[in-house]
Amino acid sequence: MFTRYFSSNRKILFLSIFSGLFIALLLGSLQFFWSYHKRDVRFDTLISDLRVYMESYFSDLKTSIDTLQPLTLENCHDVGAELTSRAAFSINVRAFLLVRDNIAYCSSATGPMEVPMTELVPDLNINKTIDMALLPGTPMLPHTPAIAIWYRNPLVKDGGVFTSVNINLTPYLLYTARQDEFAGIAIIIGDHALSTMSPTLVSVNDLHEKPARIAALEDVPLTINLYGETWTANELLYALFFGLVCGIAFGSLNYYILTIRLNPGKEILSAIKRGQFYVVYQPVVDAKSLKMTGFEVLMRWKHPTMGEIPPDAFINFAEAQKLIVPLTLHLFDLIVRDAPVLQTLLPPGAKFGINIAPGHLHSESFKDDMRTFAASLPPDHFQIVLEITERDMINQREANQLFDWLHNEGFEVAIDDFGTGHSALIYLERFTMDYLKIDRGFVNAIGTETVTSPVLDAVLTLARRLNMLTVAEGVETPEQAAWLREHGVNYLQGYWISRPMPLEQFRKWQPDLPPTGE
After folding, report:
1. CA distance linking residue 366 with residue 360, whole number of Å
2. Residues 6+ away with beta carbon under 8 Å from 3
3. With a threshold of 0.70, does the pTM exceed it?
4. Contacts for 309-313 with beta carbons within 8 Å, 24 or more apart?
5. Closest of 95, 159, 150 to residue 125, by C-alpha
6. 411 neighbors 386 (Cβ within 8 angstroms)
7. Residue 34 has pLDDT above 70, yes or no
8. From CA 169, how far away is CA 203, in angstroms rounded?
9. Which residues partner with 297 through β-bridges?
């Protein structure tokens, strides 16, 4: 429908460039925002994990301290040993101190003492039920920051339990393996903070960066700041690259489609006239001896401006434009041209497969076309195998008669790409076939735990019961070849043996197959 508006290659070029730029901008933006969203999710998950861990730790610490609160009613000489024992078995605790009348009188580390709390930790308010402060160090570890925590005992005047906790209370907090996803973390208590960006305590006012996430703990006066970039240069470059690739691909595809649609029939007929189509040959080998017994003929189109056009594209296009018959006749002409050389490469009885579209199979000229083609080949040398794709619907009533006629004329019939269509079993039941070509999708499943693997076993069993020879397409590895040979497949075809080759390369080709695991 676009061809009525764009009658020149220049207009098509401009439209293709514009559409490519639009797609590049659209998909590049989508990719960027998707990366942005994933980073947001990672930040949310990380800050949530940190908050849960910290709350769990301080909850356990409070439970331990609650068991120590009754000791504030006792003398240090009576409870010192128990206090020291409790500190030794408390994770990351440097020391427990018992406080009474605002005097720290007993330490798990040093024993009896008498130091006013206002001198020991001036920032702590012992009138609060719980209070915290950041310390640059403690007497035993003067250069290692710690968290000071106060828990008041309501039964003792100005009394309770004081403890100091290592700031690196969890490697997960400051040395997490996910640190590459963010810039740093800061623990804030009161007016001071300790962050991964500074080895010493800093004032909260000195934290100039805006945190990406903030989490405040429920039961203790501690806040966690998570710092990170909302997006990175790598994400932006990736989005630009992704958008550029998609834009180029879409613009090129758009140009190709619009160019072909200007006059699709004329384009294909012109390509036939100008010799733009050529054939390649892919060897087929006997599965047991690994010797070549024939080949499949494949058509290719090298467009002067768009390069190699995929076979599926131009074959489907030719079918849609009712040009599959002249295209197939041109294929016959190319084969006949190469036949004298092919005769010198293969012994009598060598088989070669040709794909026949249903549109040609049911055309009025099909029988005459096949007779003419067979008569043009060297007599009694090649066995022609017509490959019919099972996913293409064909007329059942006509097909049975045509297959009988083909067999009477000396042609053989293969069902191609078996298993990819909707009527595979119906084909085997209703039509007489000589070969079953197993689709590469089944071959690729060999060695994997997919549903396709047992299906392939069933297909091979069914083919043996119907006395059909089997050809495996798309064999790419020695492991696949070994499996297929062990399971009785008759012929192999694929890149493991050889890629499709033009005639000159096919003349020089010698099979050099690696071991198959036998």
Report:
1. 6
2. 258, 261, 262
3. no
4. 309/256
5. 150
6. yes
7. yes
8. 21
9. 281, 354
